[in-house]
Amino acid sequence: MPLLPPRVRLISTGSEITQGMYADSNAQRLSVTLFERGFRVVGHAAAPDDFAAILSAIRDAAAHSDLIIITGGLGPTEDDLNRDVIAQWSNQPLHKDDRAEEMIRERFRRRGREMPLDNVRQAFIPRHATILHNHWGTAPGFLISADEQRPALLALPGPPSEWQPMLAAALDGPLGHAFPDRPRRSIYSLHLAMIPESTVNGCIRDLFAGQPGCELTILASRGHIRLRIAATSATDAENEQNTRRLRDAIAQRIPPEFIFAEGPGDQTLPASLVALFRQQQKTIATAESCTGGWIAKDLTDVPGSSQVFKAGWVTYSNDAKIRDLTVPPTILDRHGAVSEPVVRAMAEGAREKSGADFALSVSGVAGPDGGSEEKPVGTVWFAVASPQGTTAIKYLFNGDRETIRSFATIQALELLRRALLKIPPESTLPD
Amino acid sequence: MPLLPPRVRLISTGSEITQGMYADSNAQRLSVTLFERGFRVVGHAAAPDDFAAILSAIRDAAAHSDLIIITGGLGPTEDDLNRDVIAQWSNQPLHKDDRAEEMIRERFRRRGREMPLDNVRQAFIPRHATILHNHWGTAPGFLISADEQRPALLALPGPPSEWQPMLAAALDGPLGHAFPDRPRRSIYSLHLAMIPESTVNGCIRDLFAGQPGCELTILASRGHIRLRIAATSATDAENEQNTRRLRDAIAQRIPPEFIFAEGPGDQTLPASLVALFRQQQKTIATAESCTGGWIAKDLTDVPGSSQVFKAGWVTYSNDAKIRDLTVPPTILDRHGAVSEPVVRAMAEGAREKSGADFALSVSGVAGPDGGSEEKPVGTVWFAVASPQGTTAIKYLFNGDRETIRSFATIQALELLRRALLKIPPESTLPD
Predict the structure, then answer these.
(1) What residue of B is the nearest CA neighbor of A366?
(2) Are A284 and A259 found together in one domain?
(3) Looking at the domain assignment, is residue A75 inside a domain?
(4) Do residues B88 and B28 make contact, with C-beta atoms less than 8 angstroms apart?
(5) Which of B236, B263, B290 is where one domain is finished?
(6) A430 found inside a domain
(7) Domain CATH number, residue A90
(8) Considering only residues 1 to 60 of chain A, which have any Cβ-Cβ distance to chain B shorter than 8 Å?
């Protein structure tokens, strides 16, 4: 009989969330972790800093769940109501927990300060709750076990830097013990760049249903397509087998050169590219016009990128293209800055100057102004200069300035990947 | 008697949200708009694509609200359950709405296509509901009026590009008419960069409570501090007066040179900076090491930045610093790349080469590797070369690579703003 994942409902507290001042990023992060650890999140909620609203959110969540996880509202101020609300809901009056108080005092002591009187509030927790140590803040968390009337409840502070290690410890400790019969889950993803989602979907349409123990999902975000295989079963071995079968079926439909990364973790195109260039001991230079430094920024986001990234130019003006990249002024006059001859000259100039093995160049019309009938907003020319010579290609992107620049950035990185691996820039999956 | 804002509960539907594959960005965007339009959002919820879960979310939301807004689940597939769930909840059976069907057919016709049979599903809406035209997708929205048993309910499609114009139209039309007695709201913000939140908080502590018709909130995110004045009253004139009073009280405590922008809309530091440089007809060049192009990227995000941004260098290697910015090799040898003499030489080299009025340079240790006892991870040197000469300053930032780089970027932009306005780089608010 298959194991059923315990049902979890999440509650985020704070008027700053219900008023839209901050996004509720805890809900997403918690959902991912809980899914991977064999739970099933069946609902999110956010409530303002109001006793009745929080109590009502907890009661609603309790009706259809095995576990409630509530974040925020454990600070030392009078706005921090979660301890009191949970005490009332669970019928377990607050009492001062000496271990909790000592944790808080110790935290202040290590910073050479006395504990302010207000912070004693944070040591009051519902009787019979299990304290969770907070190594990164003053608010202890706590776990209340399920009983006949109520599901279990885990209270965590709001900041992810505080609750993430607390949740991990709770899953290996009291929370894990409270839900021993969870299924095993594994996530395995394949990553593609700048292939239309509908095209990818068309290739693997027959694989979405009827995969034993596996679920396949396409996630698309700004030119990054992720094929996510989520396997659920009683054992890791079974998950591995089911994942492998589905992964191989995908590989029969999508040739490997389109997949820039695959594996259990998440992966970005810049990180894959830096790893690939490090592995092949090749170096990169960039010459950017419309992307304005975004490509260099993405590459240097990656730790260790200094081993492959030699230099970047943001040649926004024609003067800079001529002076820094030795683009001949006659070409600019004749063809304009957004043209094949100019991106070729930019890439070759950057490669020559920097001494890098590969140089990438981009010039386009990001908008909102600057478009023409011949070169509408969204027109972007790319070139890659490499030991094999220089190739150039043009794309037309739809959207606003931000969208065009972000697509141009990921397209440029994908062209660089293809150049390194000698994959033709224009090859695409059959539609 | 003050007008009470109608209470709204939001529901986002989709298993991709409860599983954490995407963040629920609709909840935040809707909350902001509804707050500004005189409503009060008293709860968010997200439910998976499951009939019972969605129905239960609607019932829970109905208990304490005047209006429910539910997004998603209006597509043409069998996963799209919201029409059926809402029909059951409202006791208004679905019927095919001829106007809705014609809208959908017309949309396909304009693209030269026949309407696929599946899309007829989208024309089925609860009887007595008011149809909302969707100009950007196939799913019509609809509004169900409140009755004795139930609050009003507005059903919208998931993509913001579709629901945003539909919500705006509904607020000016049937939704606005259904809630005529809303208060007027105005939002006015003051923006500061790289001043510790606790310092700002200390300056204006006495202004948080007791402001008639106004609420003051500090919002901090990655070095950007926003002081948000939300005024609520029966008239715009009263809001303006209350806002002005609180704004002036803030101005007495925070000198104007610390405020990079203020006004009713949102504003970023790069956008303010580009506007300021355009106004003063001055130009910018950048020379980046550890920020790797992020400063140039942020400046060129701004439409019209080509008028002020002349050139940028990403001189990640010492070779590039020497070759492109004429940094003397002896300085690099003697002081290392992260040092005052090097950032000075970088800024002066960039200014000289580019011919820009102002040149900004950054060199630091972003980590995770490369730190030393003398120059720990987070050490960042900045210089600005200008017609007045060159100034340099060092900061130590805490956090991971991403945090250090983002703080260094906003700090650099703030130093550039101060240089243009001749504000001393090291001046700060009294703690």
Answers:
(1) B303
(2) no
(3) yes
(4) no
(5) B263
(6) no
(7) 3.40.980.10
(8) 12, 16-25, 27-33, 35, 41-48, 50, 53, 56-57, 60
- Residue percentage of chain A with pLDDT more than 70: 99
Closest-CA residue of chain A to B367 = A303
Same domain? A174 vs A32: yes
pLDDT band at B429 (very low <50, low <70, confident <90, very high): confident
Query: In the structure, what pLDDT confidence band is assigned to residue B2 with cuts at 50, 70 and 90?
Result: low
Looking at the domain assignment, is residue B428 inside a domain? Answer: no
**Is A63 within 8 Å of B44 when comparing Cβ atoms?**
no
Helix (H), strand (E) at residue A300: helix A294-300
What pLDDT is recorded for position A196?
87
Is the CB of B132 inside 8 Å of chain A's CB atoms?
Answer: no
Q: How far away is chain A from the Cα of B25, in angstroms, using its nearest Cα? A: 7
Q: What is the mean pLDDT of chain A?
A: 94
Question: What local confidence, expressed as pLDDT, does residue A36 receive?
Answer: 94
| Residues B386 and B241 grouped into a single domain | no
- Give the nearest partner residue to A27 out of B24, B219, B324, using CB atoms: B24
- Tokens linked to A207: 């694989």
Range of the domain at A131: 7-178
Q: Are B251 and B149 members of one domain?
A: no
CATH code of the domain covering residue A200: 3.30.70.2860
Q: Are B311 and A317 in contact, with CB atoms under 8 Å apart?
A: yes
A399/B contact by beta carbon, under 8 A: no
* Domain finish residue from B263, B285, B308: B263
Residues B165 and B112 in one domain: yes
Give me the pLDDT at residue B431, please.
Answer: 65
What whole-number distance in Å separates Cα of residue B297 and Cα of residue B288? 11
Contact list in B for residue A303 (CB cut-off 8 A) is 367-369, 401
Same domain for B30 and B78, yes or no, is: yes
Closest partner CB to A314 (pick from B19, B28, B296): B296
Dist. CA B64–CA A44, nearest whole Å:
17
Provide the pLDDT confidence category of residue A225 given band limits of 50, 70 and 90.
Answer: very high
pLDDT for the residue B117:
86
User: For B364-410, what is each residue's pLDDT tens digit?
Assistant: 999 999 899 999 999 999 999 999 999 999 999 999 999 999 999 99
Considering only CB atoms, B296 lies closest to which of A35, A292, A401, namely: A292
Q: Are residues A232 and A174 in the same domain?
A: no
- What residues 257-316 of chain A have any CB closer than 8 A to a CB of chain B? 286, 288, 290-297, 299-301, 303-306, 309-316
Report the CATH number at residue A401: 3.90.950.20
Q: Is pTM, for the whole model, over 0.90?
A: yes
Summarize the confidence of residues B79-97 as an average pLDDT: 95
Mean pLDDT value across residues B259-282: 96
Structure token digits, residue B215: 């609420």
Shared domain for B351 and B381, answered yes or no, is: yes
Is A431 part of any domain?
A: no
Give the count of beta carbons closer than 10 Å to the beta carbon of residue B373: 5
Q: Tell me how many domains chain B contains.
A: 3
Nearest partner of B262 among B270, B253, B272, B252, judged by Cα: B272
Please judge whether A319 and B300 are an interchain contact, meaning their C-beta atoms are less than 8 angstroms apart: no
* B contact test, residue of A9, A15, A31 with most B CBs within 10 A: A31
Mean pLDDT calculated for residue range B89-101? 94
